[in-house]
Amino acid sequence: MIDPKLLRQSTAQVATNLARRGFEFDGDAYLVLEERRKALQVETESLRSERNSNAKNIGKAKAQGEDIEPLLAAVKDLGDKLESRESALQEVQTALNDIELGLPNLLADDVPVGNSESDNTEVRRWGEPTEPGFTARDHIDLGESLGMLDFESASRISGARFSVMHGPLARLQRALIQFMLDTHTAEHGYQEVYVPYLVQAPALVGTGQLPKFEEDLFQTKSETPYYLIPTAEVPVTNLARDAILEADQLPSRFVAHTPCFRSEAGSYGQDTRGMIRQHQFEKVELVQFVEPGKSADALEELTGHAEVILQRLELPYRVVTLCSGDIGFGATKTYDIEVWLPGQQRYREISSCSNYNDYQARRMQARWRNPSTGRPELLHTLNGSGVAAGRALIAIMENYQEEDGSIRVPAVLQPYMGGLTKLSRG
RNA sequence: GGAGAGAUGGCUGAGUGGUCGAAAGCGCUCCCCUGCUAAGGGAGUAAGGGCUAAUACCCCUUCGAGGGUUCGAAUCCCUCUCUCUCCGCCA
After folding, report:
1. What is the mean pLDDT of residues A388-408?
2. From A314, A349, A377, A402, the catalytic residue
3. Within chain A, which residue ranges are assigned CATH 1.10.287.40?
4. Nearest nucleotide (C1') to the CA of residue A71?
5. Is the pLDDT higher at A69 or at A278?
6. Is A253 an annotated catalytic residue?
7. Is A362 a catalytic residue?
8. Catalytic: A363?
């Protein structure tokens, strides 16, 4: 959520910033509502104040044994009047809140303007695109011919956009997850957390998936409705909900491995084959809570933590800054890390690292106590994949393939594979 | 799933219709006192919102959540959620 004060004091600037995203914010309509809110709130509160002092006087009079009938008469129609103002105020506040929850975050100044993925700007590259010296096969071809990737069973069980992995390949994904968790906890200062995979609506409102993107989520039919998490960002970031962290607790870094569930509504026709875009995938997620003012640096650092994983896996990648038209709803700035996939002859997203500044914190009331003011203030939240396990698995398969269709195991993962150095048929 | 108990400020815990945003204690902050330490004395110490140039006043809201009764609710009524204890079931 954007600071409501900023919204009403600098409406035009906000609208200009949001326009870079192609988001149209009707500032005038907002200000009309805001004026009504102010008038109604001032009126409502003064009526309440009047009622309170009357009630106090009645109490005093009664205690002294005086006749309270005239006082009661004087207060008679106050209740009705107050009630009508309260409900009018409530209505306006709900309308304002709906608008505010529907606004994307303000963009950082250095986010490039653009309309689509093609306008993202490359920041750096690491490694050279793998040249196997033969025609590279894609992960589907490789996995199926190894007998380790089984889309047929998956579709029989669950339909499209699921996969079944067998034996060493399934283990390789587990190895990857272990390796990533170990690296982030031992070397990057993250604390591992285990979190619920089913969450309730307020958690998703907090991180920004709701109310606007409900169609991307799976929901249970239970008596209390739950949503399956689309990312660990949701439960992990909500750890700070309604909290006031002390200054010495910041920065606070968490890492979690969870499955992620996405309905992928609207993605039909894209990446329909293979493991690139599925309803269920595994991800290791990094989340940070930091002091405001330090989040820009923290984003660089967090992105670096994700990059380390790819470097250790010796997977070529590049980092791009998402442009204003491609960046996510709640982010103020996002770096995508794209890994080279020889089977597709292009870079594909494997991690997305975002700074949300106080956008999520405001929705969640996630605060810290600023020692210089002594007051609770909103903190800043960041998150990034560190990295998506399913896609990392694809990247390993395609980048480590041999001409005979076998797949070498990256050196850093071999200890997690019981010393196995190669995935091969039979 | 069954039975019972409970939810109050950073913590413990009082408060069953009025001056209660809330006793007392602990903790914390500041001041005083005291060779040092220990002890002692005093003052302060919730959050959100409105108004505002203001983190100054003033006002509103909040005692698990939501509704209701009332001139007035932490206190009475209803619904829900969560926590704890015991039983059952289970990984």
Report:
1. 97
2. A349
3. 4-101
4. B71
5. A278
6. no
7. no
8. no
Per-residue model confidence as pLDDT tens digits over A27-78? 999 999 999 999 999 999 999 999 998 888 888 888 777 777 778 877 878 8
How far is the C-alpha of A275 from the C-alpha of A8, rounded, in Å?
A: 46
**Residue of A250, A234, A396, A388 lying closest to A306 (CA atoms):** A388
**Catalytic, out of A48, A277, A312, A369:** A277
Entry field: residues in chain A: 426
For A4-101, CATH number out of 3.30.450.40, 3.90.226.10, 3.40.109.10, 1.10.287.40 equals 1.10.287.40
Active site residue A391: yes
CA distances from A64 to A5, A53, A58, A60, A69 (A): 46, 17, 10, 6, 14
Strand B: protein residues, Cβ closer than 7 A:
A 4-5, 38, 41-42, 45-46, 48-49, 51-56, 58-60, 62-63, 68, 72, 75, 78-79, 224, 244, 365, 367, 373, 375-376
Check residue A400 and report its DSSP letter: S
User: Which H/E stretch holds residue A236?
Assistant: helix A233-237
Fill in the DSSP letter of residue A319. E
Q: Is A265 exposed, middle or buried (0-12, 13-18, 19+ CB in 10 A)?
A: exposed
ipTM for the complex shown:
0.85
Distance A160 CA to B61 C1' (A): 51
Nucleotides on chain B within 7 angstroms of protein Cβ = 18-19, 47-51, 55, 59-61, 71-72, 81
CATH superfamily of A117-423: Bira Bifunctional Protein; Domain 2 (3.30.930.10)
Residue A163 has pLDDT above 80, yes or no: yes
For residue A415, CA distances in Å to A192, A307, A409, A419 come to: 21, 21, 10, 5
Tokens 């035009």 map to which residue? A12
Q: What is the pLDDT of residues A381-395, one digit of tens each?
A: 999 999 999 999 999
